[in-house]
Amino acid sequence: MARRNLNDLLAFVTVAREGSFTRAAAALGVTPSALSQAIAGLETRLRIRLLTRTTRSVSPTAAGERLVQAIGHRFDEIEAELDALTEMRDKPAGTVRITCGDHVLQTTLLPKLAPLLLAYPDVKVEFDVNYGFRDIVADRFDAGVRLGDTIDKDMVALPIGPKLRMATVAAPSYFAAHPKPKTPRDLVAHRCINIRYSLQSGLPAWDFERQGQPLNVRVDGQVVVNTTPHVVGAALAGLGIAFLPEEEFAPHIEQGRLVRVLEDWCEPFAGYFLYYPSRRQSSPAFSLVLDALRLSSVAKPKRRG
């Protein structure tokens, strides 16, 4: 009943403003006879005449004029708000929250999103640099970034970067005092620089692969950190062997500050993926972020579970 009353009230306001059933019917996309019946039904329910009808014109009665003044601007406000929503669709705005690591933020997210942010000043992106396995739903993130093999299978995973290779490195001073490992198993006899992603997690194994054969090794050492820049810093200080995506070490390897070993055990693998809940309703701002980060060639991550 409430919806019918609203439709009839809109019909009445339109007729009163147009001064014609024909013009009002055209504006509302209905027939004049249907519009006349709607107004008659409204007057019957209210038990008061709202319009004075003649053969040449239609005008509101005193009661009708009072009703137009009371509710007409409300329909105007609704129409204006709907227009504003349409403008928001055409001119996206809002904040997108992403949890990620340092490396992917610097090498992938910022370079890809910078043009978007310059083009859409009302879109904001908030980055949470965190190496823990955040619950993006509970923590109210729009998305997270991880390597493909660590993403739960109930998430949508979008590849955002090329394949990666890991690198095993140490400073020349470290190898001056310790023999270079020939296989990943030799690492158990070395001081290795570990990374702990959260206080609740254990130290992850180092994953190697050669000719399709995987080999996982758990290592130990004197230094444990929780961010990758500190892994690089500890390696440069000669505190042990480090293991990260090769891009993290590239300038130091090129300039001889770090020495790479076990390169034949580091095969390319699917890199970083943006992930988000499969039931998420995408906002215009989030859709723009997805499009900016999307790779043209689609890789499929190995899913957990």
- Principal-axis shape equals rod-shaped
With strands numbered from the N-terminus, the spatial order across the biggest sheet is 4-3-5-14-6
Query: Which spans of ≥5 residues are poorly predicted at pLDDT below 50?
Result: 297-305
- Mean pLDDT comes to 87
- Please describe the biggest sheet, giving its number of strands, its sense, and whether it closes into a barrel: 5 strands, mixed
The oligomeric status of these chains comes to single chain
Q: How widely separated are the two ends?
A: 50 Å
Can you count the beta strands?
14
Please indicate the percent range of residues in DSSP E strands (runs of 2 or more).
15-25%
Rg of Cα set: 32 Å
Find the structural class using helix and strand composition: alpha/beta
What would you note in describing this structure?
40% of the residues lie in helices and 20% in strands. The chain is of the alpha/beta class and 305 residues long. Strands 4-3-5-14-6 form a 5-stranded mixed beta sheet, covered by helices on one side. A 3-stranded antiparallel beta sheet has the order 12-7-13. Strands 1-2 form a two-stranded antiparallel ribbon. Strand 9 and strand 10 (213-217) form a beta hairpin. The chain is rod-shaped and about 105 Å long. The model is unreliable at 297-305 (pLDDT under 50).
Which structural traits does this protein have?
305 residues, alpha/beta, 14 strands
Brief overview:
The protein has 305 residues and is α/β, with parallel strands linked by helices. The protein has helices spanning 2-18, 21-28, 32-46, 62-90, 102-119, 172-177, 228-236, 246-254, 284-293, and strands at residues 51-53, 58-60, 94-100, 123-129, 143-147, 155-159, 166-170, 194-195, 206-210, 213-217, 224-225, 242-245, 259-261, 272-277.
